[in-house]
Predict the structure of Signal peptidase complex subunit 3.
Amino acid sequence: MHSFGYRANALLTFAVTILALMCTIGSLSDNLNTPSPSAQIEILNINWFQKQPHGNDEVSLTLNITADLQSLFTWNTKQLFIFVAAEYETPKNALNQVSLWDAIIPAKEFAKFSIHTSNKYRFIDQV
Ligand SMILES: *[C@@H]1O[C@H](CO)[C@@H](O)[C@H](O)[C@H]1NC(C)=O
């Protein structure tokens, strides 16, 4: 009755049950987290504005980016990729989206910051 096979089966069943329980608890704990990230972006200065030879307009901005993203970090967060995109409408395009700046937040301790920077990627509007 208490053969090797029987004991191995009981042990495996117990191990799988505990594993399933831990997976369920882990999954639930992540879903119960309600993050409340906040961010403010302010244009502090328009450094220059110029027309390119082909007619496109290019602008350089100084931005003040302030964010508190700490609540996004849980046991299940490896890192955050964040970006700032300018979205605007022109007669030619109903929606223009230009990526201006991005960053990778590797840990919770870096998730609350205020950065004073110019746009990392060129902000060019199509003619
Ligand atoms: C950037 O914005 C934050 C929050 O709005 C403010 O506290 C800080 O003084 C600003 N920095 C500059 C250089 O304007």
About this structure: The chain is about 20% helix and 45% strand. The beta strands are 38-51, 57-68, 80-88, 96-105, 112-118, 123-125. Residues 18 and 39 are 41 Å apart (CA to CA).
